[in-house]
Amino acid sequence: MMRRHIQIIPLCLISLFVCAQENEVPDIHMDFESYDPPSTLVVPEHPLSSAKYPFIDVHSHHWNMQESDLHELVSQMDSLNMGINVNLSGRGGKILSAITHNIDSQGYSNRLVVFTNIEFRSIDEVDWVESTSAQIKYDVENGARGLKIYKSQGMFNTDSSGNRIPLNHPKLDPIWDLCGALKIPVLIHAADPKAFWQPMDSLNERWLELKLKPGRKREADDPAPWEIIIAEQHDVFKRHPGTVFINAHFGWFANDLDHLSDLMNEMPNIYVEFGAVIAELGRQPRRAKAFFTDFQDRILFGKDSYQPKEYHTYFRVLETADEYFPYYKKYHAFWKMYGLDLGDDILKKIYYKNALHIIPGLDSSLFPE
Fold this sequence. Notes:
Blueprint lengths: L10 H12 L32 E6 L10 H10 L1 E6 L5 H13 L6 E5 L11 H14 L2 E6 L2 H4 L17 H10 L3 E3 L18 H6 L13 H14 L5 E3 L9 H10 L3 E4 L4 H5 L2 H10 L4 E2 L10 H9 L5 E2 L9 E2 L6 H15 L11
Parallel strand pairs: 1-2, 2-3, 3-4, 4-5, 5-6, 6-7, 7-8
Antiparallel strand pairs: 9-10
Helix pairs in contact: 4-6
């Protein structure tokens, strides 16, 4: 006689099965780049679209200013309460003179300012120092208010033998001294964030940025160690105390303000601007506010890429006490931001007073006393 074996399923397992059917978790395939949930935190918010005081942006780039209609740019500046925009992409020579002529012809010589640039790659030419010095003098006579050095000039530019040209190359010494004699500041961008040189792994805070922007990844000696490039820059600052240097992007030490404080104390001829590093400051509001208090006379407003809506985050970090608000590029800063709530005296210095002090020929009548 055949017998059937009936398997008895415990009631508790049946209940679990039914619950799983009723509450089935959807099959969501999502990578880290897509995960960006809005915060459920309910706190006071004070978003800003214009600065409390008119400000001078010392780090901007406009590549066609020699021929473009400037009315829209100035209208955007007005909406942000930007008094003066400093275009660091003057290039020099005939292009720079064409830029300043175009600015003058449209009546904006008090609103738009240009820095000149020089060419490192011809440094082996016998008359390089003389010709470069002559170009800088010509550019200053034609309206240049400073010199901008690009990161490529300390990283990728090579001499005729294929050797990288360091910022502290001996042939550059007369150039730094000339800028000091002409009373024009030198804004230098050296290297990039240190994380770009570090292994691209789970311990790298810039992993997402490097994944989305792979061209930013550097190997340990490509083109040189990060520490070497930064040290070359500091060597220039120390050996030319009579020249004012603006250390772009907080010198890539916005994430280590104790060390930056030591550097500022060691080298009194350097100023800093916070273009592209406001996210570092916004995640450490107490330490950053102390730094802004200590060095309130040597910090400048800088933005870097000119995107009007991105300025709003800068204003909010500097002026408000808001908590836990987002940066505008997740890949650049996946963390949240906090306001520094700076007082009016410090804000005025950061926004315009410090720039008026070191950049010659700016129209101070655009700003309050």
